[in-house]
Design a protein that fits this description.
The protein has 218 residues and is an all-alpha fold. It is 77% helix and 0% strand.
Length: 218
């Protein structure tokens, strides 16, 4: 039985919800979600910072980690450098990976030189940069799951927060695990990736969050 036939066997309603989940938890958006959690949910990291200041940090993440990469993909499609906005092929992903890596490193430098930004957020952004760089190299061999990398990064930074013992993370990690399962299952339902590509993405996201935490917080 081919992969195509497996896709056709999935109920349309199931595929619809799989697409919705994939859009909501696009890896670019995950960066914003994690920043929101650190700024507005965690009680200590942004203690003393006004709501306006927290929103300003969110806007910086939105501009650099979401707006610029999206504009880059739109321009690449308009100029004919990529075939699809969805980056379905390894070739389509090369330039967006490079461009996003530049944006993520820029964001890391911005946060590193901003004393109001806690090390946990700086480390998270460094982990995002490192994992996207590793994904660029992995892309030479196979199409690794960007969604899984995003989920691995979210789980990784949550585990780092748990290790720091600054907040009870039972509920956040449980929710993160549930979301990770939904997102990875959605990618399989849509036949966008194999199990191997998803597992490798999760491992990359996790691993480089741990490395980044050691680098920034040591």
């Amino acid at each position: 039985m081919t992969n195509e036939s497996l896709v056709l066997e999935q109920p349309p309603v199931l595929r619809f919800f799989a697409k919705v989940i994939s859009y909501i938890f696009h890896p670019l958006f995950v960066t914003l979600y994690v920043t929101w959690f650190i700024a507005f949910v965690h009680p200590d990291y942004f203690a003393g910072v006004s709501t306006k200041g927290k929103i300003f940090e969110l806007l910086k993440v939105f501009n650099i980690a979401i707006f610029y990469p999206v504009i880059t993909v739109i321009l690449l499609k308009a100029l004919g450098f990529i075939k699809s906005f969805f980056l379905n092929t390894q070739q389509d992903r090369i330039i967006p990976y490079i461009a996003s890596g530049i944006y993520f490193f820029w964001m890391y430098l911005v946060f590193k030189n901003d004393e109001s930004v806690p090390p946990i957020l700086t480390g998270f952004i460094l982990g995002v940069f490192l994992s996207s760089s590793a994904a660029l190299i992995a892309n030479i061999y196979y199409k690794i799951s960007m969604h899984a990398i995003g989920m691995g990064g979210m789980l990784g930074v949550f585990l780092v927060i748990m290790e720091q013992n600054t907040m009870l993370m039972t509920v956040p990690i449980s929710i993160a695990l549930l979301i990770t399962g939904l997102v990875c299952t959605s990618r399989l339902i849509l036949n966008n990736h194999t199990s191997k590509e998803i597992y490798m993405g999760l491992l990359l996201g996790l691993f480089f969050q741990f490395i980044a935490a050691v680098v920034v917080m040591s």
